[in-house]
From TrEMBL:
Catalyzes the formation of L-homocysteine from O-succinyl-L-homoserine (OSHS) and hydrogen sulfide. The lineage of its organism: Bacteria, Pseudomonadati, Bacteroidota, Chitinophagia, Chitinophagales. GO terms for cellular component: cytoplasm. It catalyses: O-succinyl-L-homoserine + hydrogen sulfide = L-homocysteine + succinate. The gene is metZ. The modification N6-(pyridoxal phosphate)lysine is found at K211. Pathway: Amino-acid biosynthesis; L-methionine biosynthesis via de novo pathway; L-homocysteine from O-succinyl-L-homoserine: step 1/1. The keyword Transferase applies. Keywords: Amino-acid biosynthesis, Aminotransferase, Methionine biosynthesis, Pyridoxal phosphate, Transferase. PROSITE patterns: CYS_MET_METAB_PP. GO terms for biological process: 'de novo' L-methionine biosynthetic process; homocysteine biosynthetic process; transsulfuration. It comes from Chitinophaga lutea. The keyword Kinase does not apply. This is O-succinylhomoserine sulfhydrylase. Belongs to the trans-sulfuration enzymes family. MetZ subfamily. GO terms for molecular function: carbon-sulfur lyase activity; pyridoxal phosphate binding; transaminase activity; transferase activity, transferring alkyl or aryl (other than methyl) groups.
């Protein structure tokens, strides 16, 4: 961006125009700095860099211009002061836990969280003496009573994966503030295009950039964003433990951010059209989508999100076996573990990602036997709808 009289551009403009400084070649698109370390003119410049007296780059595990470009664009989109980018969404979530939690601390998390996040909280944090309590995302009024003197952090996903439950972030923030607890939101499903948790008073935002941010199912990545003093703690932990984002992946993700607003508008529009068309379908028990008036937390969705996102869920009549038959009959939609792709994807958690849980455990985290999650892609909505409808008919 030209420095002279720089106006404050809209976030979508900044996501396109923030760029690492032009080199002497005057390239138009941001270059890829695929290098693991950086050089110095002399011993004094090297000493000063290591003493943190200059902001010269040192080593890509700490920082890198291509990674910084992605961070700067994400900061503009989320309205964050600072950020640290990681190799995956899980290293962002894990780094945000390890930077602030220690032995004897307590984490309050919503029960419906991404599978690997659940594993980290339930299986690994206890190894370091960090305890947790899960709460029902749809009952934020229950949270205050669960806060203990050693509670350090509240962690939520909204909308949640795969159940699409929401929580009123402003209400949760006011509880967290009263008790001086850090509130950490996984904003993967909404993206900063549809929801900006930091503007509602949240302390930390984490992302899996692998999903909508990349948007084409190519690379893994993650990021933690928030106030500088908090992100510095995440940086200190990650710089020494090594979950750095590859500059190549950062470069791909920065280019992807240039189309994020356009893509999320299309994903959300098509998802709403699919959900609306499927509601009342005789093969389905129910359809769930945040911007459908029938969603139990529709009012919260309208209050804190500017669009419903690209995920639609429905419950098939006929349970687990019908779910498997439905997947078999799809012709266009992909059967794959990812979401947030230009290609539409169908998944059946009960027979795949959550198959190892008992039915009771599955119900506890909102996974019913016939639950299908559709990640609505960028194809023509008529083709997506036609494929889902023909697979419903054919899987009777
Ligand atoms: C996929 C996902 C993650 C983990 O991200 P990875 O990039 O796969 O490590 C975390 N949270 C949510 C909500 C996700 O969907």
């Amino acid at each position: 961006m030209k420095k002279k009289n720089k106006p404050t551009y809209h976030p979508e403009t900044q996501a396109i125009r923030i760029q690492s400084e032009r080199t002497s070649h005057m390239e138009h698109s941001g270059p890829l700095y695929l290098t693991s370390s950086f050089c110095y003119e002399d011993a004094e410049a090297m000493r000063a860099a290591f003493a943190d007296e200059t902001d010269a780059y040192i080593y890509t595990r700490f920082s890198n211009p291509s990674v910084q470009e992605f961070i700067d664009r994400m900061c503009a989109l989320e309205g964050a002061e600072s950020g640290f980018a990681t190799a995956s969404g899980m290293s962002a979530v894990f780094g945000s836990f390890m930077a602030f939690l220690k032995t004897g601390d307590h984490l309050l998390s919503s029960a419906s969280v991404f599978g690997s996040t659940h594993t980290v909280i339930t299986k690994f944090l206890p190894k370091w003496g960090i305890e947790h309590t899960y709460f029902d995302l749809t009952k934020p009024e229950s949270v205050e009573a669960l806060i203990k003197p050693n509670t350090k952090m509240i962690f939520v996903e909204t909308p949640s994966n795969p159940g699409l439950d929401l929580v009123d972030l402003e209400a949760l923030v006011s509880i967290a503030k009263r008790h001086n607890v850090i509130i950490n939101v996984d904003n993967c499903f909404a993206t900063p295009v549809l929801q900006k948790p930091l503007s509602l008073g949240v302390d930390l935002v984490t992302h899996s950039a692998t999903k909508w941010i990349d948007g084409q199912g190519r690379v893994l990545g993650g990021i933690v964003l928030g106030r500088k003093e908090l992100v510095n703690e995440v940086y200190a932990f990650c710089r020494s433990t090594g979950p750095a984002l590859s500059p190549f992946n950062a470069w791909v993700l920065s280019r992807a951010l240039e189309t994020l607003h356009v893509r999320m508008e299309r994903h959300s529009g098509s998802a709403l059209a699919l959900a609306t068309a499927l509601e009342g379908n005789p093969h389905l028990e129910w359809v769930k989508y945040p911007f459908l008036p029938s969603h139990p937390q529709h009012a919260i969705a309208k209050k804190q999100m500017s669009g419903g996102g690209g995920i639609v869920c429905f419950e098939l009549k006929g349970g687990l076996e019908r779910g498997r038959r439905f997947l078999d009959k799809l012709e266009l939609l992909s059967l794959t573990a990812n979401l947030g792709d230009s290609r539409s994807i169908a998944s059946h958690p009960a027979s795949t990602t959550h198959a190892k849980l008992s039915e009771a455990e599955r119900l506890n985290v909102g996974i019913t036997p016939g639950l299908i999650r559709i990640s609505v892609g960028l194809e023509h909505i008529g083709d997506i709808l036609q494929d889902v409808q023909q697979a419903l008919e054919a899987s009777k």
